[in-house]
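Supplementary Note 2. Why include the ligand at all?

Several targets in our set were suspected to adopt different conformations when bound, so apo predictions alone were not considered sufficient. For every target with a known small-molecule partner we therefore ran a joint prediction. The input for FE2/S2 (inorganic) cluster is given below.
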Amino acid sequence: MALDDNKGVWKSGRGKGRKTPKGRQYEDSALAEVRALLGDRPRRRDLLIEFLHLIQDAYGHQSAAHLRALAEEMKLSMAEVWEVATFYAHFDPLREDDPVPPALTIRVCDSLSCELAGSEALISALEDGVDPSQVRVLRAPCMGRCDTAPTLELGHNHIDNATPELVHTAIAAGDTHHKMPDYEGFEAYCAGGGYAELARLRADGDWEQVQDQVLASGLRGLGGAGFPSGKKWGFVRANPGPRYLAVNGDEGEPGTFKDRYYLERTPHLFLEGMLIAAWAVEAETCFIYMRDEYPAVLEILATEIAALEAAGIVEPGYIDLRRGAGAYICGEESAMIESIEGKRGLPRHRPPFVAQVGVFGRPTLVHNVETLKWVARIVREGPEILSSVTHNGRTGLRSYSVSGRVAVPGVYLLPAGSTIVDIIDAAGGMAEGHAFKAYQPGGPSSGVLPASLNDVPLDFDTLQPHGTFIGSAAVVVLSDQDRVRDAALNMLRFFEAESCGQCTPCRVGCEKAVKLMQAETWDQGLLEDLSQAMVDASICGLGQAAPNPIRLTMKHFADEI
Ligand SMILES: Cc1cc2nc3c(=O)[nH]c(=O)nc-3n(C[C@H](O)[C@H](O)[C@H](O)COP(=O)(O)O)c2cc1C
Ligand code: SF4
Ligand code: FES
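The joint prediction is reproduced in token form.
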């Protein structure tokens, strides 16, 4: 920025004044580069994370000069831009003197299923085997590919069942881009009757009738909270518009990969379900918040949304696809909404609930990807598709993501009353040479149960008496070759890394728990006090559920600690 002579920009009257404006100044060249990247996109505050992606994608990092220029272009303070850029793991904001990261990044998953499959040895071998000036090796949480553990991301190329050899071959070949799966596209979906129900409902449908169908099916929120899906629609409708719909595609709970599984196969079933729910609550816009770890899904959705626009099924811009940036907490619905608004993903205090005060302060219907897929199926096939399935006194179907020591890890659609025995059977039994010892029923938030609890239906409400819950049905099976205390430590390390830091019991509690859990003998009294403080005083589900692995290990595996 050119300064006028020697006058001092804030000088008025007598005195020396300042020679420069306060704070960092933008550089004309950086501003021109940022403007070129942003093109004619509106300079809206809520698009800040999208713009940070543009810089990161183009340069492999975010220089202080570019961040300053972005702040200038968006009329934001540098502090606002910096705090957002530093919050998300997939951004590399740099201070002036920071070294530029190497051109290639390998993110190796070190969450539970990948750790069981040898991610620690993989990380060491990669660190020893690459030139650190060219390639950096980072640890990263679950990438939703636990069925092919250990997994890593080389640039944006996910390498499944990864070995150092596969990585070196891919580096040599410059193979750093994501691979596209074979999925059902728009025309194939329409040929099978797709979007006919949406058209019928839009023409003369009664939203309350559809809500009744959803209620009759017994569908509950498959993001993990299990709230009856139909009931939410009425809550949102009870608030005056404009209203929004926000799809939770963050799928960050380690061990969960069902949403990716469905989106990489039948994306339109989800999209039609989303548009039916949007019609029911008269949503002005549908935001889809999709995790950055799923580049193929992001491409599928961008392509298929364009197909919907071209076919006139939605107005251009009606579906607003947003890309996460590597933060588990953005799966918590109010944190996701903050992120959609272009901010750090800090969970909000409730009430008010997002059904009342959501995106941009408006009533917002939030649904998980799989929940919406079921909405489409219920409307097409009737509520009986779920309500007619009973097993062990439970009703409905559940998509279990199964990984760990089973023969054939994968997503299994089974009756909601399935026990761990049913689930291991579906996954081809235990892996060869492994005897069943313990299992994580629903992500690290659910902790670990012993093999002896093998007759409990893994469904909503059935696990509470055992001090846990089904959550997103992310089942990880452990064997006689695993120590549950190590699994619990892995889980707490995950929470420590992913805590948003907003409240002390969670931020400090996770850190302290990790330290205590590394001792040969656990201080059980102190760990219990800590757990209680976290449960009582954390703002959101992360801090409230993080003690589950600690408590269940103390309860069922005392011999290990
Ligand atoms: C720490 C935390 C992480 C969460 N992560 C996800 C997630 O990745 N995906 C998801 O759909 N729901 C997640 N949820 C649940 C959401 O807050 C919310 O209940 C859900 O998106 C609502 O949609 P549903 O009713 O269709 O399940 C998370 C909740 C918490 C507390
Ligand atoms: S409980 Fe943890 S993740 Fe949730 S708001 Fe508090 S610090 Fe953030
Ligand atoms: S991809 Fe590694 S644990 Fe899920």
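Residues 1-6 have pLDDT under 50 and may be disordered. The first strand starts at residue 104 and ends at 109. Comparable summaries for the other entries are listed in the accompanying table.
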